[in-house]
Design brief:
This protein has about 300 residues and is α/β, with parallel strands linked by helices. It folds into two domains: about 160 residues, Rossmann fold, CATH 3.40.50.720; about 90 residues. The chain has twelve helices and eight strands. The chain has an eight-stranded mixed sheet with strand order 3-2-1-4-5-6-7-8, sandwiched between helices. α9 crosses α10. It is globular, with a radius of gyration of 21 Å. The protein starts with a strand and ends in a 16-residue tail after the last helix. The structure holds nicotinamide-adenine-dinucleotide.
Length: about 300
């Protein structure tokens, strides 16, 4: 049975552990949190998962590493130094980082050729995408193996041609979320109405076609060129940026709309997971043709 080491047992690490465990991997989870064993017993029961707080021990003899520790470069550098020292040549060291480029994480690391980003969308056990981002020192073999593993897990690995902070998914998300915060600050719309607006339009659209494909369709038989030259030519306005000093107002409004704490989190996560599961199969993300979501 192949062995995977998951580093970090937070939101993302626990979900990766479920995914690898359900796919038949023997899973080791490493995290210094004092409740690690309880967490594994509670969240990952019935799966082949072992809690190993000591990272060196968890890394020794493993076949693949999926790091999901804190998003702080000094912590990642230290974790990857330990991983480099305690894993065999050829073992892929993948980081779930949402934005830190691999060249930064691999700075001064003797195993830089084995370090790659394998960035999931939350929750990794359900969302098909994993962005595979090689750094300048990442070997082709490392990126190939990461793609192969994610594909075996039933994911859609998308390999970037080169690193860029935030990669592609979170660069797009940042622009979008900044505009959403700006619209709240400007008093144009409320939090829940904005979420409804997106769910009923862009969200549903982008679950079925990507933005370029949508551009092709929006132009009719004239395609995206027609759309760009006609409707698109009128979308000529400044979009503005949110006032960072006033982000507290936006966060207050979000908390008022959805609540905070464990009960609110559990309720919203269950709603999201149920809805996500309901659309994965009809959209072609599960079953025999899985892997490309039924691409045209
Ligand atoms: N939350 C998201 O939506 C999301 C999505 C995609 C990727 N990511 C990335 O995944 C990673 C984890 O994010 P998260 O949201 O699960 O964070 P989190 O705060 O929920 O979990 C981080 C875990 O790392 C543990 N940790 C701290 N020091 C450690 C160490 N030295 N060794 C091992 N574990 C240690 C903490 O105890 C904690 O359990 C980050 O790099 C983040 O950018 C997050």
């Amino acid at each position: 049975m192949a062995v995977v080491t998951i580093v970090g047992a937070g939101v993302i690490g626990v979900s990766w552990a479920r995914l690898f465990g359900a796919a038949g991997w023997e899973v080791r989870v490493s995290d210094p949190r004092p409740d690690l064993r309880d967490l594994v017993a509670r969240e990952l029961a019935d799966l082949p998962v072992t809690a190993l707080p000591d990272l060196a021990e968890a890394a020794t003899g493993t076949d693949f590493v999926q790091e999901a520790g804190p998003e702080r470069i000094e912590v990642k550098e230290q974790m990857f130094a330990t991983l480099a020292a305690h894993t065999a040549d050829g073992v892929v060291l993948a980081s779930s980082s949402s934005s830190l480029v691999p060249s930064l994480i691999a700075r001064g690391n003797p195993a830089a050729d084995r370090i790659v980003i394998g960035h999931p969308f939350n929750p990794p056990e359900l969302m098909p995408l994993v962005e595979v981002v090689p750094g300048p020192k990442t070997s082709g073999r490392t990126a190939d193996r990461a793609v192969e593993v994610y594909r075996e897990l039933g994911k859609l690995p998308v390999r970037l041609k080169k690193e860029i902070p935030g990669f592609v998914g979170n660069r797009l998300q940042k622009v979008f979320n900044d505009q959403a915060a700006y619209l709240i600050q400007q008093g144009v719309i409320d939090v829940e109405d904005l979420d409804d607006l997106v769910r009923a339009s862009l969200g549903l659209r982008w679950a079925t076609v990507g933005p370029f494909e949508s551009g092709v369709l929006g132009g009719g038989p004239g395609g995206m060129r027609h759309l760009t030259e006609h409707v698109g030519s009128q979308l000529d306005f400044e979009t503005g940026t949110p006032d960072r000093a006033r982000m507290g107002e936006v966060l207050d409004a979000v908390e008022q709309a959805y609540g905070t704490g464990e009960p609110a989190y559990e309720r919203l996560a269950a709603l999201r997971d149920g809805r996500t599961r309901a659309v994965l199969e009809p959209l072609g993300w599960t079953g025999p043709a899985s892997g490309d979501g039924g691409r045209a």
